[in-house]
Amino acid sequence: MSKTSHSNLTVKELIKKLSDLPQDVPLVTDGYEDGLDAIINVELIGIEKNSSDKWWDGFYVNKENNEKNAVYLLSTRGSKS
To answer: What is the pTM (predicted TM-score) of this model?
Structure first.
């Protein structure tokens, strides 16, 4: 099964969507296999399209240069510390 293309949500679109929501609720994302994980930080990172077409690999991978072209919402599961 190959990955399908998709449209990315931009920071501007996310801010608009979040501005219509209660401001004192937690942000969460999908857990690794089950449940939900907390969003604990936001970072500006560099990404590029992943050349792998395996469905379990992410659509993007970290870019090796210094170009910052995406916002990464770091979750408790994704924390590298």
So the answer is: 0.72
Spell out the domain ranges in the chain. 11-21+28-75
As a whole number of angstroms, the distance between CA 74 and CA 31 comes to 12
pLDDT at residue number 81: 45
Query: What pLDDT digit, counting tens, does each position of 31-49 carry?
Result: 877 889 999 999 999 999 9
The strands making up 28-30's β-sheet, listed across from edge to edge, are 28-30, 36-45, 70-75
Task: Look at residues 81, 49, 43 and name the one whose alpha carbon lies nearest to residue 62.
Answer: 49
3-state secondary structure of 54: coil
Q: Which residue has the tokens 């792998």?
A: 52
Q: Select from 67, 68, 48 the least CA-distant residue to 58.
A: 48
